TrEMBL record:
Amino acid composition bias (Basic and acidic residues), ranges on this chain: 26-36
Keyword Nucleotidyltransferase among UniProt keywords: no
Stretches the record annotates as Disordered: 26-61
Full protein name: Natterin-3-like
Keyword annotations: Signal
Keyword Signal attached: yes
Region forming the signal peptide: 1-17
PANTHER family reported for this sequence: AGAP009604-PA (PTHR31649), FARNESOIC ACID O-METHYL TRANSFERASE DOMAIN-CONTAINING PROTEIN (PTHR31649:SF1)
Organism: Xyrichtys novacula
Domain of life assignment: Eukaryota
Length: 200
């Protein structure tokens, strides 16, 4: 048994030495300068298993096919694109879904070349801005208290901000604040019951 352990130990030493010779110095990997990936509460994430990697590949390809139907944000320049998402507002006419940075609101050509969006208690104006253009069917579905239906249109990836509306006009749903915020007459109005734009 001792001979076997000695032989195994010698083989490991020889194989690691031959590996060192084959790997150029510049390609050696050191872990000293790296910190492990952590979660928001600073706990270390476990390494991915082959099953996790396969699941990630599958979900990404499914997401890509599914996302091909999602509306896209297009920088506004010149006239409004023909497939821009809009609503009819009884007081102003046609309002288009717009966003300034990540904040959704409305654009109405009659009111100037700016996106009207809610922020910090007021109606704000932003330019340059983007218009939402549909690539497939879109629908308005009911939501309330921060809840949004499946396939809701986000104003930005990885953020809990969604395109919303109430009877008074377009705005954005902030899931964390459990409400839809709508710009109107210089103010930001808060609604707990609203509709969210979704895609099929």
């Amino acid at each position: 048994m001792e001979v076997f352990v000695l032989l195994l130990s010698s083989l490991l030493t020889l194989s690691s030495a031959s590996l060192k010779e084959k790997i150029p110095q510049s390609e050696e990997v050191t872990l000293e300068d790296r910190s492990p990936e952590t979660t928001p509460n600073r706990s270390v994430l476990p390494p991915l298993t082959p099953a996790d990697l396969q699941r990630n590949r599958t979900s990404k390809s499914t997401l890509t096919r599914h996302q091909s139907l999602a509306p896209v944000w297009v920088t506004m320049s010149g006239s409004v694109p023909s497939s821009a998402v809009f609503i009819y507002n009884p007081t102003r006419g046609t309002d288009y879904v717009c966003r300034y940075r990540c904040l959704a609101g409305f654009y109405n050509p009659k009111l100037g070349h700016q996106c009207h969006y809610p922020y910090s208690g007021r109606e704000r104006l932003g330019s340059p801005f983007q218009i939402l253009v549909r690539r497939g069917a879109v629908n308005w579905k009911n939501g309330s208290f921060g809840l949004v239906p499946k396939n809701s249109v986000r104003t930005c990836n990885e953020m809990g901000l969604f395109v919303g509306r109430v009877s008074y006009g377009l705005g954005m749903v902030r899931a964390a604040n459990k409400a839809c915020f709508v710009p109107r007459n210089g103010h930001e109005f808060v609604y707990r019951h609203y509709q969210v734009l979704t895609f099929n």
